[in-house]
Amino acid sequence: MGKNVNLTCKVANLIFKNPVLTASGTFGYGVEYEKHLDLNKLGGFVVKGLSIKERSGNNPPRIVETPCGMLNAIGLQNIGVDRFLKEKLPKIAKFNTHIIANIYGTQIDEFLELAEKLNNAERISAIEVNVSCPNVRVGGMLFGKDPNMVFKLTSAIKKVSDKPIIIKLTPNVSDIVSIAKAAESAGADAVSLINTIAGMVIDVKSKKPVLFNKIGGLSGPAIYPVGVKMVYEVYHAVKIPVIGVGGIYSADIALQYMIAGAMLVEVGTANFVQPNITIEIIKGMEEYAKREGISNISDIIGSCCK
Amino acid sequence: MQLQIVSNKQVSKDTYLIKIDNPEVFDAYPGQFVMVRVNNYNYPLLRRPFSIYNLSNTIDLLYRKVGEGTSMLSLKKPGDSIDILGPLGNGFKIKSDKKLILIGGGIGIAPLCFLKKKIDERKMNCETYFGFNSKDEICVDYGNIATIDGSFGYKGNVVDMAIDKIEENSLIYACGPTIMLKKLALLCHEKKCNMEVSLESRMACGMGVCLGCAVETKNGMSLVCSDGPVFDYKDILWEKM
Fold first, then answer.
1. Is A167 helix (H, G, I), strand (E, B) or coil?
2. Are the C-beta atoms of B109 and B99 separated by less than 8 Å?
3. Can you give the pTM of this predicted structure?
4. Which ipTM value was assigned to this complex?
5. Which homologous superfamily is A9-57+75-198+219-305 in?
């Protein structure tokens, strides 16, 4: 005890002071959380998915709670990339942490335009490409379900962007490994998984789905074993770093992801319940490392398989 | 923040009043709300939004037992601790040049009772109209009461009871079921008076991040939690509600 634990992790050319990031769509543009935690303490944060044009999102109802989880169909409501760069980025630029932009397009050209616009933003450390949102009618998951499309999209983005590219994968496929491999062979710097699991909740009285969009994405503690399993599988199949996402609400779950093979983790829905949960998770990781006599947290990555 | 429960009692049919120890730092306006974490486990996962019913040396919340979360909350005992996030959102604005009328339906009376207290403190006048389904649901001991079944007070809905009192110079503060608010919106339009409404919605975070509590307004999608929960009724697209 008392010995300092090295929590740093490296993805592409980026050093993260610790492996804990926040997941896109659960942390706004960062500014919303300023009064709840010290953003400087995070490994990084991923901002709400950005599109070329502002999107108003789906009609309500947009969320419904499920046992230990929630189903959402927000529909990527966001202010658009230009307003983000002009209005939000200057407010978060001062924080000493990695800011990762998450992008969404309905066709390849839109993804490329987004990547180009973000390429000039110095404070954006990396781009996470959403090929996996279940709540939009065009693009979205269509890209993420087809290895050829993922390959095509990833290669195209790599050509226009100097930033590390992270491809965010959907679990709603028969073989996530083949999609991860497609991203890797196209030059992706990392893959993050999993996005939400598609689901539906029905109101038995009206006999209609509760969500206006009918289908939503399931997140929260209920889904973490699915994410851990997929990270484990993908870790074995690719050489690029894997970022674990899905249901992380404690240091224990974050560590499970890392032991399964995740280099970094993204905390999502738990931010809604406890705004400073990421700080608790970082503390918990450090305590675990001390307790277990681990001096570099990165030593545990993929240790489940050894 | 973790706070201690002082009392948690049933006050009428399915309706409970919980009083939570108020640290000195906590101040709020009528119409603001708090997000309550019912327990520290993952079930129920999300916090529940509750309007502030009263604020003194305790934070008082009036709630109706409607689902599993509120059922669990109703079992909490004095001395138990509870996690509160807030105060959140934008409250009612008290204006002195208007005839103030408070209209609440069911559990929607909660923020209006806090508003009434603040109006009284300013030595201003207001009229209060509260509607319930039946006598056993009544959880307030003042105001003009309407019950749908006629078991107490005016028989019928609260809007019909208040209709003759609403004038062009009225400012209505309302909270209650959507159907009641829609009816009031139509009435305000006809009588050319103003109204501030407190809306309810499913929400996950309460702080403008999850975007779950969207409501369609003249200005596009607004969020009940951070743009509201109190809105000028003219901004709401009532036909979409």
1. strand
2. no
3. 0.94
4. 0.93
5. Aldolase class I (3.20.20.70)
